[in-house]
C-alpha cells in the first residue's frame, strides 16, 4: 500500500508547482484584509520589486485632461516594503460599504493580487475585487438565501443571421413552478458584453437578495450582447473578437433596436413569461441606456417600465454629423409622442452628477419636458461607474411589476 | 446638438483611462500571434522591465525534485526587448494543435498577457490561453455549430445541510424537446470546483462539437462541486473560501460519495432525463476519478458507464494509515464484486504514462484483475494535466449511451 500513500501525499504537494493547472497559489499572505474599523490593508510579496503601487476605486480620484474634456480616474497609493520583502498599504480611512476593484502596479507592470481569489473579468481585463459589507454592498454579496439560476444560452437571430449568446437569470423557484413570470431586459454599456451585468453588475446577487427581502418580486432578467457585430463575449465566439466598441471583425448586419424583436420572441417562446406590457421592463447603462430608450420607442406599446442609467435618452450612437443628429432627435421625439399616448408606468432616468454624459442627460430631459413626456429623474453622486449602476439596479428592480 | 456629439466621442475615449471599469486595453500589440507555420510569437510592452520571461505548457518541461519525488513543470523562455520597449519571443518549432496556457514573468512578478482577451480561471489563478487549431484542439474551439446551454444552479443537499452550486450543460435542442436525455456526471479534481470542467475542460465546446459531428449523442452533463466542505467556487459562496484541497472554513459534514444521492435526485426531478442505469454515466479526473470509482461502487446498480481519468480507482482520500488503507481496499473490492455481478457496459480507466499517479493506477488494475473485474485501459502520453483530461473527455463521451 506504500504507493497509494505516496500518491495521496503527492496529490497535495505536486499541484502547487504545476503552472498549467494553476492550482491554489499557496499564499500565506492575506490581501486584502478588511480590518475591524473597515480600513483595508493590501499586501504583495515582491522582494525583487523597486516600486509597488495599488490602483483602485477606493482611492481619491485623479483628474486627467484630454482633448474631449476632463475625466476623473482612480487614484494610486504606494506600498511600503518590510524586511521580508512584503509590500503593504493600509487605507488611511475606513471604507464605506461597496464592491471595490483594484490591481497592483509592480515596477510599471499591472498585476492582479495573487493572494485574492476574488476576480471579475470586464471584457479584456481581469481585476481583483473585494466587498466591504455593512451597508449597500451587502446586496452584492452571495448571502445564505435562495439562489436563482444563471444560464448562458444561444438564441437564433434571423435579423442578425446568426446564433447569439445571452445570459438569463431565472429567480429561485422558477424551475419548479407553473406560474408565469415578468421579464426585465437589462442591457450593458459600450465596453461590456453579455457577461457584464452578471460580473461587475452583481445582478444575480442583487436579485437574489432583493427577492429574499421581499423588496423585488421574482422576475426573469435577460442580459443580451448589445454589440450586434459580435455574437458573444471574447472567448465565447467562433469569430475573431476585437474587444472595442464599434469594432469587431465585421460590420453589424442590423442595430440592437432592429434586432431586439428576435430576443423578445426567443424569451417568450422559451420561458414561462407573462407576455403583457405590464410585465415587461427594459433598462440599460450608458450605451445600453440609449438602447433602452430606442427600443422602448421603437416597440412603443411593449414596455411599461423603462430605465435609462447614465445615458441621454435622446442620442444616437450612429449619427455622424449635426444634421443626422438633429434628424434623429426630431424622429425620436415623434416616437416618444406615440409612446406617451400608449402610456407606461415608469420612465426612470438616473445619472451621476459628475458623469461625463450628465449634460446630455439634462438636455434630453429638457426636450422631453417640451413635449410633456413624463419621467422620474434620480441624480446620484459620482460618475460613469459600476458603483452607480449597481445602485440604480438595486433601486429600479424593486419598482417593477407592482 | 454639440453636447451629444461630444458625448459620443467621449464615450469612445474616456473608457480606456478608467481603471474601475477596466475596459478594453487599447493594445496595439498582437500577442500571442499564431504564425502561418503554427509557431507562436509572444509580445509584451514593458519598456521599464529588466527581464521578461514567458512560462507555459507549450515549452519543454523542467524536472523539479521534492521530498515526495520528481515532478516535471512547465518550462520558461526569455523574451528579447526591441528598441521600442516591446519584448518578444517566438517558439522555435510549430506547436501541435492544443489549448495552451501561459503567463509572463516581469522582473519576478507573474502577469497575464494584457494583449490577449482569452483567459481562464482555475480556482484562484487566472491564466492567459490560446488555441492552435488544425487538429485535436478544433474540438475545444467555439465553432459555428448549434450550442447547448450552460446553467449555474443551486441544488439542495439534505445530506450536507445546505444549498450547493452546480454547473449543468444541456445539449442543443433540449429546451424545445419533449424527449428524455441520458445524464453524464462529470467530476473535477482536487484543485477544481464546479467551474473547472467548463473552463479548462472545455466541456461545452467539446460536447457541442462532438454532437454536431454525430460522434456523441445529445446528453446532459452535470458538473457538481466535489469539495463537500465548500458549497461553491470562490466568489460564489456566502462563506469564506480557502481554495486549498481539504481546506475551507469547516469540516465536511459528509463525503462526496455519501451526498451524491442528493445530486442524482435533484437532476432527475429537475430535468427530462431517462432514469435507467443504461442512461447514467459518471467520470472524473484525479480526485474526481476516485470519487467516480467510489460513487459507482456505493450506488452499485446505478451507472452503466464509469470513467476514471488519471486516478487509481482503489484509493481512499481519507485513509490516514496503512491499516485504514488496507481495510478500505478490502471493502472496496467487495463492492466491486457486487458491481461486477450487477453488470455495467464500460469501466474506462485512462492515465498518462508520466503521471505521478501512474503506479497507483497500475496497482489498482492488478487488484481488479485478481477478482476478474473487467475494465478498458487507455494509456496516453504525458502527466497529470488538462491536456490529457480534455482528450479523455473527447474519447469517453462518444462511447456513452450507445
Q: What can you tell me about this protein's structure?
A:
- 2 copies of one chain form a homodimer.
- By secondary structure, chain A is an alpha+beta fold.
- The first copy, chain A, has 2 domains: 24-133, Sandwich (Immunoglobulin-like), CATH 2.60.40.10; 149-399, Rossmann fold.
- Helix content of chain A is 24%, strand content 27%.
- In chain A, the strands form 4 sheets. Chain A has an 8-stranded mixed sheet with strand order 13-14-16-15-17-18-19-20, with helices on both faces.
- In chain A, helix 6 links the parallel strand 18 (305-309) and strand 19.
- The longest helix of chain A is centred in the last third of the chain and has 21 residues, at 322-342.
- The model of chain A is unreliable at 1-27 (pLDDT under 50).
- Strand 13 (149-157) of chain A pairs antiparallel with strand 13 of chain B, so a sheet runs across the interface.
Brief overview:
Two copies of one chain form a homodimer. By secondary structure, chain A is an alpha+beta fold.
Give keywords.
six-stranded antiparallel sheet; disordered N terminus; Rossmann fold; 20 strands; homodimer; 402 residues; alpha+beta; Immunoglobulin-like
How would you classify the helix and strand content of chain A by structural class?
alpha+beta
Count of domain modules of chain A: 2
Oligomer: homodimer
For the record, the CATH architecture of the largest domain in chain A stands as: 3-Layer(aba) Sandwich
Shape descriptor of chain A reads globular
Mean pLDDT of chain A: 88
Helix content of chain A: 10-25%
Number of strands of chain A: 20
The CATH superfamily of the largest domain in chain A is Alpha/Beta hydrolase fold, catalytic domain
CATH topology of the largest domain in chain A: Rossmann fold
Q: Give me the Rg of chain A, rounded.
A: 23 Å
Biggest β-sheet of chain A: count, sense, barrel? 8 strands, mixed
Low-confidence stretches of chain A: 1-27
* Strand order, largest beta sheet of chain A: 13-14-16-15-17-18-19-20
